[in-house]
Design a protein that fits this description.
This protein is α/β, with parallel strands linked by helices and about 300 residues long. It is built from eleven helices and ten strands. The chain has helices at about 15, 45-55, 55-60, 75-85, 145-150, 165-175, 180-205, 220-225, 225-230, 245-250, 275-290, and strands at about 5-10, 65-70, 115-120, 130-135, 135-140, 210-215, 235, 240, 265, 265-270. The chain has a four-stranded parallel sheet. A two-stranded antiparallel ribbon has the order 4-5. Strands 7-8 form a two-stranded antiparallel ribbon. The longest helix has 24 residues, at about 180-205. The radius of gyration is 20 Å and the shape is globular.
Length: about 300
């Protein structure tokens, strides 16, 4: 492993640093509710504070390297995969103009000799709402919101999809699954299938890959998969290892902003992102995993 190289970090707002703005020591804290994040209200000072304190920077600093992170807050597994492919000119981006100059800062591009690791954070599997049905791509909107209602009924989609899309989706469901849970497993496996394909593309460039998860739905599948399990990072706090961030924050409420007791201007913050202290735990877990690879720094 070479000092001075970069580490790509992709994921959703939990990787970008959502929620860290509350901990900035400034008078203007722009966001007060989870889900009301407005990047236009983020000042240069707050953005620099977020960059300095998110786990991706902590990991990079530890190894004398630099971080690559999403330019915008949020994302799905599909957008993370596409981001990496764009950065490294892979997949559908392989024939696009590979301009790496800083003047194109909104279009991050890198070559394989500049990147040492990819650290991929899995997010909500139901944020991927493009599915292939009989060689046709269907856009199943609101699937993440419907999943959260726990109604577990395919007919729920009837109220949010146009009739043509619903009919095709309903037929797909009836022909392939015996239960809602089987469909859930399908979405999770489709997410992991895309990740495996990405990792193999990236590794062919000589870049090493790691993954960790916000959600716990993936864990049982990852542990049974020889290839992915060898790259999977558990989060360690004190003497306990957690399979995902969700489990860590549910066990230790102080690491979730909403339940941590942290106040801004005397008021609690209704935000489910991790606290600034939790970023350090994630960073340490990633650092330990990379160090176990027994790679000598040059």
């Amino acid at each position: 492993m070479y000092k001075g190289k970069g580490i790509i970090f992709v994921g959703c707002s939990f990787t970008w640093g959502g929620g860290l703005e509350y901990f900035a020591p400034f008078k203007d804290i722009p966001n007060t509710q989870d889900g009301e994040f407005d990047e236009k209200k983020i000042t240069f000072a707050i953005m620099n504070f977020i960059k300095a304190n998110r786990f991706s920077r902590l990991v990079a600093n530890h190894f004398g390297m630099w971080e690559v992170n999403r330019l915008n807050c949020g994302g799905s597994n599909a957008t993370s995969i596409d981001d990496v492919q764009f950065m490294l000119s892979l997949g559908r981006h392989s024939n696009t103009n590979n301009s790496k100059h800083f003047e194109n800062i909104k279009l991050q591009r890198y070559s394989e000799d500049e990147i040492e690791y990819l650290v991929f954070q899995l997010t909500d599997p139901y944020r991927n709402y493009h599915i292939n049905v009989d060689n046709e791509e269907l856009v199943i909107t609101n699937i993440a919101n419907i999943e959260k209602t726990n109604e577990k009924n395919i007919n729920t989609f009837k109220n949010v999809l146009d009739s043509n899309t619903f009919d095709k989706f309903f037929k797909f469901y009836i022909n392939n699954f015996n239960s809602w849970e089987e469909m859930e497993d399908y979405f999770i496996l489709e997410n992991l299938k895309g990740l495996i394909e990405l990792f193999k593309e990236v590794e062919s460039l000589g870049i090493k890959c790691k993954l960790w998860s916000w959600h716990n739905e993936y864990v049982s599948f990852i542990k049974k998969h020889e290839y992915l399990s060898s790259k999977f990072i558990k989060l360690k706090y004190e003497d306990t290892e957690f399979d995902c961030l969700y489990d860590l924050m549910n066990k230790h409420l102080k690491f979730k902003i909403r339940t941590s007791g942290f106040l801004v201007n005397g008021k609690p913050i209704n935000d489910d992102h991790q606290t600034i202290e939790c970023h350090k735990i994630i960073a340490d877990s990633i650092i330990n995993s990379i160090e176990k690879d027994n790679i000598i720094l040059h």
